[in-house]
Structure formats: C-alpha cells, structure tokens
Design goal:
Shape: globular
Radius of gyration: 12 Å
Number of strands: 3
Strand content: 5-15%
Number of domains: 1
Order of helices and strands: HEHHEE
Distance between the termini: 14 Å
Helix content: 25-40%
Length: about 80
C-alpha cells in the first residue's frame, strides 16, 4: 500500500504556514495522490478535480506555484516542487 510521510513540523514550514486553507488542502492531497498513483510528483490539469474536491482548485494551484511548492508544467499541469511523488 502506498503512503506519504510528513514531518511533524510540516504545518509550520515557512512555505506552508501562510497558505490559504484551500491551497494547503490541495498541497497535502496532491502529495497523497501522487504517492498513491505513482505520479512522480506530476498532477495533470485533467486530474486536478480528482485530487481535491474544493472550489477554485486552479487558483489554489497558482497559489502553490507562487509559494514555490508547485512548478507549472505548461500544457500538462503541475509538478510538486518539494514532493517525493
């Protein structure tokens, strides 16, 4: 069974601490999705709605790009910048 591991200080990481609730949720869900689906840290635009059931997931993805937690992959989607996916 695949699993994801988080450091106990994860919620207080300087990149994570000031995220909106939706962006935080997307980030955690993206890490778990990538681990569970062997996605190598890539979340495609088509998968985004499956990864997290939240309003405005693209806006949250943009917030994660700004926080340097996601890297935008034009025409594909995003790569988790600090993910192990």
């Amino acid at each position: 069974m695949p699993w994801a591991q988080f450091d106990a200080r994860f919620p207080w990481n300087w990149r994570v601490r000031f995220l909106s609730d939706g962006a935080f949720r997307l980030y955690v869900c993206a890490i778990c999705w990538s681990e569970g689906n062997l996605g190598n840290g890539v979340i495609t635009a088509a998968e985004l709605r499956c990864v997290v059931d939240a309003r405005a997931p693209r806006r949250h993805a943009e917030e994660l790009v700004a926080a340097e937690l996601f890297e935008e992959l034009p025409g594909v989607g995003w790569r988790i910048h600090d993910g192990r996916g």
